[in-house]
Input
Amino acid sequence: MMKAAEELRQDFPILFQEVNDEPLVYLDNAATTQKPQAVLEALEHYYQHDNANVHRGVHTLAERATHAYEASREKIRQFIHAKETAEVLFTRGTTTSLNWVAKSFGDAFIKEGDEIVISYMEHHSNIIPWQQLAKRKKAVLKYIKITPAGYLDMADAQKQITDKTAIVSIAHVSNVLGVINLVAELAAIAHQHGAVMVVDGAQAVPHMPVDVQALDADFYAFSGHKMCGPTGIGVLYGKRQWLEQMEPVEFGGEMIDFVHLQESTWKELPWKFEAGTPNIAGAIALGAAVDYLQAIGMENIHNYEAELVAYVLPKLQAIEGLTVYGPQNPQDHTGVLAFNIDGLHPHDTATGLDMEGVAVRAGHHCAQPLLKYLEVAATARASFYFYNTKADADKLIQAILATKEFFQDGNF
Ligand code: 7TS
Output
């Protein structure tokens, strides 16, 4: 059993404030999550006691900083079940991680006419790096369809992934449809055709157990700030066999072994990819976030969020004129709930909810091809995390009804 959400909330000082004279109900967790006291303390502790550059000094503070930074890498390795820490690279976040794969793996392995397969439900960060790679290499970018019920179309995946496919890159969980994609099956299909499997795990790692080896992902990307960690730190997992063959994306200090006038050699993995002074405090605080999440248990978090969805999704579906996107079965829907209300612009919905203290996002959620596919310009989106309660869900429903009434009665 995990601690009750009511108890876990106490660890998040930011949640205890009023917005527009109402208690804050934070439901924008797909954009970024809040930070527990333990993560805030890890940041402060580092800067108050251990601040020094890593991998360079022999003095005590430098050793402490280096130890904490590398200990954090080991925590992340365990968290995602990577084989070795050499396969865990610190980046700025999911976007940087995916760009590194597209640039470095792409430059090394993609040839003219090769195919890169993504899907219609990808975040822009898992589209544009591949578009750019396709342009550089004259490769072909293809999209897997979505079924009318809001799932990735696995039959279409079988069709799109062929012997010409070099890369398949898919979100583990969609940041709009809230659906969990069958990435292990996709990896198996990709591998049958000699392609690599890249997974955008930004919306998965914070919410469920992830085992990169069980998924057989070649690369797996995620962000610290969506899992209780700070902004500006994230991870790229890559199988050693690929990372060994890839060139660093950036060059400079920290990543070199020997520098001669015309030639240089790189450090071994993972450091060859980490040029310049890294986000040391961010990496250490991400380690604290991993400790925090593991103390709760990722299986518990996943089950609790499923319980919240089972509670709130039918209530949303019951509101007249409200459409929820993605699977309609609560069992197949994560806590990312994008919706629209007939006759209301999603920005008005979000503004109305903010007046009630409820923070949701409105817009295209960096997934314009998906919204075009769904034939909507924008949606509102409520996204839950383990510190949200059924009372938060009730407040969302009540605030939607109030907003609907306010705008639809035209008394504004
Ligand atoms: N991939 C997915 C599936 C995402 O949801 C996001 C961020 C990213 C990649 C990019 O992550 P970043 O940390 O590098 O920015 N998604 C959202 C969102 O849905 N609302 O704000 C950010």
